[in-house]
Amino acid sequence: MSRPPHIQFDLLANARDSLRQAVELLAWKDIGSDHARLKHSITNAAHSIELLLKERLRQLNPALVWENVDKYPSLEARTVTVDAAISRLKNIGGITFSENDEKNLRSLRTTRNAIEHYEWRTTEKEAKAIVGNALSFAFSFAVEQLGTDLAADFKHDDTWRSLIDELYDFVRAHGARLEAKLKGKGEYPSCCDACGELTVPMRGGSCELCGHWQDVDDA
């Protein structure tokens, strides 16, 4: 008799799954109302980021994932909060977080808590800004700190293109992040004809944000 299937998600796989849920809710409009999709995309993005931070802590030392390191690896003991994870990554891991990212992550945490534990009231504009900033941070942190390109998961079909079309707040946030990264490499990026962001390398090629191919003479 065969054994029943075994379900297992490690920290990164768990984060990846929640991020997929967030992105697909935003990219495709065939599930629920706009406001319900925004609500669930925020909680999924927040969950994904929490796990990405914990995965980076685990790489430093698995015990750091636990609030009380002496309790590791008891699943009955509490793991760290997002705030504690950031503090440990900064103080122990030497990882820097921009002031803007820390502010956005605090806003995301507050919003997630309101949704999950009480009631949630906000504007659609604010909700889109919160989730747009969250997705940008998640993709960037995964690449820079975990060596994992989570954005690639959505480029096998039209999901990435649809996300860009549907959520300008993500385009704005991630476009600015990618532009700064290019400039940090000594580039003078050009404006992409497709997405309108300064995310095309100065010698031309594929837009870092939307993937549109652009020759330097066309920029």
TrEMBL record:
UniProt-recorded name of the protein: Uncharacterized protein
